[in-house]
Write a structure and sequence with these properties.
The protein folds into two domains: 245 residues, Rossmann fold (3-Layer(aba) Sandwich), CATH 3.40.50.2000; 162 residues, Rossmann fold, CATH 3.40.50. It is 42% helix and 14% strand. The chain is built from 15 helices and 13 strands. The strands form two sheets. The chain has a seven-stranded parallel beta sheet with strand order 3-2-1-4-5-6-7, sandwiched between helices. It has a six-stranded parallel beta sheet with strand order 10-9-8-11-12-13, with helices on both faces. Helix 1 crosses helix 15 and helix 9 packs across helix 13. The radius of gyration is 21 Å and the shape is globular.
Length: 420
């Protein structure tokens, strides 16, 4: 079967989709990863093909500038910028993706859940469609706090009222982009989008997520065609030593690994707080910027600061992790059996942090308004010295290490295509 995987050029989406593409190839399929032009430079063709679209609306290096602007945002501003970018991507999907799909002659299209518009193109071609969630799946129900919340679920009427209010506030913030989606659908001969279309995948499609069920809060309204899997990470790649990293600069102390991801990673005050918090601890701080090495104001202590780090390899050596609670880093940290301190910045990161704290029990979380060197140091010492955090992480790791997430996801999508 020829499978196309449509994904935005964010590194945090490209990496898990590349693992998913290789899982299709291992199963005997042909896989083509489809992305905007800037995505090609971030991928290595390793078992799958790469095709681009959107060269007119998103010429090369346009995403680089966009990410630089988004990198300094947090909270609602960061979420709003991402939603607006999804609207611009939707236009490229409608206007520039069709000839690519026609040329590829796919038998299954797997779209990232944020690639809105691709479901219309698939329907027009009677092309089987699957949806893959590299981040938290966008299902909402009043019994579960929204993705923007650090709260635990509660059955109390007041908590559910608060959840409903927060879900509605999120939708209102996305309303301009929602109207863009609807206008583009009408312009291309499709019905206008309904509010529930943002959160419900029609039953004729399969939806897979790299979020394992053991990490999620209990839902009562998951679609029947939704599949939990496990991290879209390939174990054999975790054991490959990256010689570009300055391994000789590791001084023998236990490692604290810190990363704020590859998007909202230009908040310099956060790096300063992390370095100050770790300055007097008997650990070596390895701080990955998630972007090309850039000049930072002088940081306290002697942190080893790099642009990009071999994260999977370093997690095998680390004692604990400081993370923005992006789903990829959260899952890789759990898979390594490590406790962490979560510093959610924007998007669904608070929701992921809430699951690490309240569902798994392997983390402490600090909202940005609470982040000071003193508060972070106290949180670090707690997760390092209280055995329950590491024990919870290691229990979870035992389960995750026994699962092949990419193969589980690919199998579910292939079944949906064959049973259509």
């Amino acid at each position: 079967m020829h499978v196309g995987l449509l994904v935005p050029p964010f590194q945090g989406h490209l990496n898990p989709f590349a693992a998913l593409a290789r899982a299709f190839v291992r199963a005997g399929d042909r896989a083509t990863l489809i992305t905007l032009p800037d995505g090609r430079a971030r991928l290595r063709e390793d078992g799958f093909e790469i095709r681009t679209y959107g060269e007119r609306l998103f010429p090369s290096d346009s995403f680089v500038a966009t990410e630089a602007r988004m990198g300094v945002l947090s909270g609602r501003a960061g979420a709003r910028a991402a939603i607006e970018l999804t609207g611009a991507q939707c236009r490229a999907i409608f206007e520039e993706l069709p000839p690519v799909l026609d040329a590829l002659q796919l038998e299954l299209l797997v779209m990232d859940q944020v690639c809105v518009g691709a479901e219309c193109l698939a329907a027009r071609r009677e092309l089987p469609l699957g949806v893959a969630c590299a981040a938290l799946p966008l299902h909402r129900e009043v019994g579960v706090p929204p993705w923007t919340s650090l709260r635990a679920p509660s059955r109390s009427p007041l908590a559910q009222l608060r959840n409903a209010f927060d879900h509605a506030r999120f939708f209102l913030g996305a309303l301009p982009t929602f109207r863009t989606f609807s206008r583009l659908r009408r312009e291309h001969g499709f019905a206008a989008m309904r509010p529930r279309d943002l959160h419900e995948i029609p039953p004729s499609r399969a939806q897979v997520c790299q979020l394992p069920e053991l990490l999620d809060f209990a839902h009562t309204k998951r679609p029947a065609h939704f599949h939990y899997t496990a991290p879209w990470v390939e174990a054999q790649r975790a054991s490959t030593r990256d010689e570009r990293f300055p391994w000789e600069r590791l001084d023998g102390r236990p490692i604290l690994y810190a990363s704020l991801g590859t998007l909202q990673n230009r908040l310099e005050w956060m790096y300063a707080a992390i370095a100050e918090a770790c300055r007097e601890l008997p650990y070596q701080l390895v701080l990955a910027l998630g972007r090309e090495r850039a000049a930072l104001p002088a940081l306290a202590g002697e942190a080893l600061v790099v642009g990009f780090a071999p994260q999977l390899e370093l997690l095998q050596r680390a004692s604990a992790v400081i993370t923005h609670a992006g789903l990829n880093t959260a899952l890789e940290t759990l898979r390594a059996g490590l406790p962490c301190v979560a510093l959610p910045i924007t998007h669904e990161q608070p929701g992921i942090a809430a699951r690490l704290v309240h569902r798994v029990g392997s983390a402490k979380a600090l909202a940005l308004r609470e982040l000071t060197p003193r508060a972070l140091r106290a949180a670090l010492l707690e997760v390092l010295e209280e055995p329950r955090y590491r024990a919870a992480a290691q229990r979870t790791a035992t389960t995750l290490q026994s699962l092949d997430g990419p193969s589980l996801a690919a199998a579910a999508l292939r079944r949906a295509a064959s049973e259509r």
